[in-house]
Amino acid sequence: MTWSEMQPLLEQACLETLWMVGWSAAIAIVGGLPLGVLLVLTDRGGVLPNVVVNKVVGQVVNIARSMPFIILMVALISFTRMIVGTTIGPAAAIVPLAIGAIPFYARLVETAVREVDGGLVEAVQSMGGSTWTVVRKVLLPESLPSLISSATTTIVALIGYSAMAGTVGAGGLGDLAVRYGYQRFETQLMWVTVAILAVVISLIQFAGDAAARVLSHRNPASAAPRLVLPRPRTGESAEAQPAETTDATGSAEPNEPAGLTKTP
Asked: How many CB atoms lie within 10 A of CB 135?
């Protein structure tokens, strides 16, 4: 297969993959962010401690995360047909992709929000701040770099899920690699697909890491200790301060004014 024959196939597959990953990532972030924050708020010692809600939500998240994606796609066939009207194509793949990514991102959000200093939360509460104020003013801003890194990890995982979804007719680069690279023995096209996926993942990871560094409040350079030299008191100049000298015994003595001798 020549490059002129591969180019339109690769362009169409790239657009389908980006479309699937983009929509499913947006849905996962919108659904997983409040779910992860809820797990932190309802935990023991949280702002809204509720053991029952925390255990139920945690178990649902754990069960959804433990299910392999290919099984999840098959289990959601009826639900996918009810939502989008079909079970084949990029639009149908968005449903299982988003549902599989929501609990994944929720656990990452929970880990990121738990890293926020509890003293900041107590300070806002002591000033009469509500739960919404704590979430909006403390938890989310302070954990924003970690949330960006978590979203990057989720998007990278979704790219792998989308390639897996291509094996069952979802389209995208995974479907192209299977139909042409495996079934038709077009090895060159398969390796080109792998290279494109590697480049896309590298670019997304680089952009996510750069955004997390920009938004990070932790600056190692500013945390380094600085040497502060003593300044002369007000009304005195540096020349007016008596200098100290060290005699042979090692004790410090102030210098004598010029023209005076020291008697034994």
From this structure: 21
